[in-house]
Design goal:
The complex is a heterodimer of chains A (about 190) and B (about 220). With about 190 residues, chain A is an all-alpha fold. Chain A has helices at about 1-5, 10-20, 25-45, 50-65, 75-95, 120-125, 130-140, 145-155, 160-165, 170-185, 190-194. In chain A, helix 2 (about 10-20) crosses helix 3. Chain A is globular. Chain B is built from 8 helices and no strands. Chain B is rod-shaped, with a radius of gyration of 49 Å. The chains are: A mainly alpha (about 190), B mainly alpha (about 220).
Amino acid sequence: MDKNLNALSDEELIAELQQTGNERAFEILVQRYKNPLTNYVFRFLGDFDACMDVVQETMIKFYRYKDNYSSVAKFSTWIYTIAGNLARTEYRRRKRRSFLSINDYGEDHKVFDIPDESYRPDVMTDSGIKDELIQKALLKVKEAFREVVILRDIEGMSYEEIAEITGLNEGTVKSRINRGRAKLQELLKDIYKE
Amino acid sequence: MIDDEKKYDDLIKTLKGLQQVKAPPNFEADLKRRLNAEKYAKEEKRTIKRFFAPSRLVPSFALASAAIVIFLMVSANSEEADNPFLMEPRVREDMILISDTDDLNIPIDNLSKKSEVIEEKVIADKKDKGMRRENFVDGGSSDESLIAGRNELAFTETTMIREMESVPTEDISAEEFTKPVATGLAIEKSGLNFRQVNPTQKEQEVILELKKKMRILKKNEKLE
């Protein structure tokens, strides 16, 4: 039974979950998407704890509103939309709170990450200074540009999918990606010099 | 668009080469815990909603209001019972209540005489009371005399009862029983306890003879 479920596509699995309420289908989808979503949300927020909260909340929302999913859209698009919305809300909330916090988020502010555990990716990036610099540069790019750059260049999505996730026109998506890339290249010019 | 991709080729390669961030190993366990907590919270909310649903509140509200109305009615009645003007007087300990006339064994002649005496005394007492009231209204009596009057009244009542108690007791014969009952004492049926007697054959014969005599007496009275 498990083997059969594992062989199913995302859309077939969610259909199984909707029709039979099979919890195993939900577990498989969580297994498939937990890492891509964690990567996407972490690159967007730059904080692992906040990222984990957002990803967990995404999965809870997916479970709660599973019946709202329609097979017209791809499952990946649907779940990335949920994660993106939650990540944006969290980012804005943290930005408001940053007036009182040691952590400062935003395009023109420095980021002070306090390292915690060795397994954490934000700590792991310490091993590669390049990764850390890129992450910091990403956080300096405007929210609207950063999101599409991450989806396109880190998550490897098509323009069409990004347009669906963000609810923008494809043209706007391409334009934003270019502007984001330009800003990022400017921020990372020292790396390329090396 | 392809030109743009080429323009940022190095950047794209750098971004794609970023280390993949992975979820921690306890991700699923945490997720399950949170889902279960949410389910429990939902159930709790549902039970609270169910408990306070209008369909559930109406009968309980009706029951509560009915209980309040009943309580108010009972409490109002209890107030009436406590009202000294509506209370029945207490049974006096110095008086003897007679529930059965058989216990008395008083000869009717004596009883009528006694009752006459008692009636006379009561009339005299009433007259005396009337006199005292008149005096009180006129302002001719002091508080001390009033108190003395009350004591006298109490004394006369107790003496009357003692006199009734001291009446000699004799067995009432059949003839005496047939005599007309003294009218001095008003005896009501409602105040009496009737004893059911199962007479023997001899007693029944005596009763029949007495009944015959009664009829004859009644006929004679009618003839006279």
